[in-house]
Specification:
The structure is a homodimer. With about 280 residues, the first copy, chain A, is an alpha/beta fold. The first copy, chain A, is about 60% helix and about 10% strand. Chain A contains 14 helices and five strands. A five-stranded parallel β-sheet of chain A has the order 2-1-3-4-5, sandwiched between helices. In chain A, helix 2 crosses helix 5. The longest helix of chain A is centred in the middle third of the chain and has 22 residues. The radius of gyration of chain A is 25 Å and the shape is elongated. At the A-B interface, helix 6, helix 7, helix 8, helix 9 and helix 11 of A face helix 6, helix 7, helix 8, helix 9 and helix 11 of B. Chain A binds a DNA duplex (30 and 30 nucleotides) through helix 2 and helix 5.
Chain lengths: ~280, ~280
DNA sequence: GCATTTCTTGTAAATTTTTTACATAATTCA
DNA sequence: TGAATTATGTAAAAAATTTACAAGAAATGC
């Protein structure tokens, strides 16, 4: 019924439109973000046509009326915030680049949310719950993610460790028991040393969960691949959003495990909390 | 400005609402998908209240009026298909909590984006650019943030270190030169050991940038406070979103520094990139 | 426990916004 | 070029939203 991509429909319908309706179409495509806050009179004026023409345009693109049209447009724009150009330039003000950093991060997260393979997540959660030991391997920016993950899972009463040193990884990998889990984290998906460690894990009978971009060697090599295709900012600084994307996925795994472990955990966490409070001041 | 996750806002605001407004809130949360196609009369009737009450409800949750409210709701639903009526399947609960993690993270980020004190960010960037050394201190979950930050700033050709050990922090703090910068990261804002380290830094003439919730001792004690009030998930696990919020702020700082350092950096980063590629496979 | 004040909520009116009806202008085709 | 057709705008009607206000409920003080 409702076209998923309204702007697409508008482009497609364009040739069938009358001259003044086309003016409306062009204006909408040029400034879709502005349109969703406009009244019909504003849009009519700005497009240089009369109000009924706007209504006729809305009907022509398959909507029931103007309100209906705005709603559909708003929905489309909500799912692709990238409509507003996100790229930090030299001349950006503090406010601008702050917004851009947040917006692009949010954008990455929303896209990732909808592209995650749920069955792999479930498999990963199940594997983690069954493991005696859970370890996190990562280098560079992924090392910080690994340590964060370790901290988080440790709190969930899971024996976990994080290694960012290939020697330590190798040593630990060879001592794993069948069923133990290693989560290999890589933003590039192509780190040779990590692949080597993964090989050792698999030889020990361990299960490797890979957090890496799809189609990369690490995603292929993992027993359970959680593919994370965060749009890399190739500019000034590397793994920015992708790192946060990885953390979010770790969070999802942690929640999944927490849910599975159930209420036994609650008591433990409360205890932990009271222990921590002695380190804090009022 | 506009709440990203309207339903979240509605839940949060619920306690402040009057009885009949709450009826509207409950109805909206129960059937959000239906509401976006309703007129104000329909919603009023179905919720069992009068039309002005609906308008008052819309205002109470931060919208300008009913239309505005519907628009915001539509936008959220467009980006959270989980709200759509989907038959309960085996994968559904996974889907649900996955969405919750992402949605609440996004929510936190957007709220933070609009509440950051820009002038403090600018002051922080300026301080970092002037420093000979930049160090990151944090414990627990904030330790991972500190290491991530260290990694990021190191790439920007800034002599940086990260310590999550109070002894190392103290030793390093006493050896700082005036003008050097320490970024103290705390999700609680009340870690005693961190406050002690900060005191030492200040005695050495160093500048302390504090990343902590507003109104906390660490925020007060810092020379430049960047207040981060991420809604803590009191549930199963602690610092979840707040940790990502801290990372995002670090990103903003890094961008700010990168921008100030200007193009001289570009060449350096390219060099770095080619160096890294030897560690990766094709 | 009653009177007074304050806060809630609905009714009805006013305003705003959208849509329809119709007339005029523009275009097409013979 | 002129009749027919289509396109567009004007103005009025309808619909929807918002405001003003009054009645009712709850809370507070005496």
């Amino acid at each position: 019924m409702k076209p998923a991509q309204l702007t697409q429909t508008i482009s497609d319908t364009m040739i069938d439109l009358r001259k003044s309706e086309r003016k409306v179409a062009e204006f909408v495509l040029k400034e879709p973000l502005g349109v969703i806050r406009m009244r019909i009179v504003d849009l009519a004026q700005q497009a240089g046509v009369s109000e009924p023409t706007v209504v006729r345009f809305c009907r022509a693109v398959g909507c029931h009326g103007f309100q209906d049209f705005k709603l559909a447009l708003a929905q489309q724009l909500a799912s692709s915030p990238s409509y507003g150009q996100i790229a930090v330039t030299d001349t950006d003000s503090t406010r601008e680049y702050t917004h851009k950093v947040f917006d692009s991060t949010v954008d990455t997260l929303l896209k990732l949310r909808d592209s995650l393979a749920l069955e792999n997540l479930e498999a990963a959660v199940a594997a983690i719950c069954n493991a005696q030991r859970v370890e996190f391997y990562g280098f560079g920016a992924s090392a910080a993610v690994a340590f964060d993950a370790q901290h988080k899972f440790f709190r969930l009463q899971i024996t976990s460790a994080a290694y960012s040193d290939p020697h330590l990884q190798n040593m630990s990998a060879t001592s794993l028991q069948p069923g133990d889990v290693v989560i290999a984290i890589s933003q590039s998906g192509r780190t040779q040393a990590l692949l080597d460690s993964m090989e050792l894990v698999k030889r020990s009978g361990g299960i490797v969960i890979g957090l890496a971009p799809s189609g990369t060697p690490i995603a292929h090599s993992a027993n359970i691949a959680i593919e994370i295709d965060a749009k890399e900012d190739i500019q000034i600084y590397t793994p920015l959003s992708s790192r946060i994307a990885h953390l979010a996925v770790i969070d999802v795994l942690a929640i999944g495990v927490a849910q599975k472990k159930g209420p036994q955990l609650q008591a433990h966490l409360q205890q932990l909390q009271s222990g921590l409070s002695s380190l804090r001041i009022d």
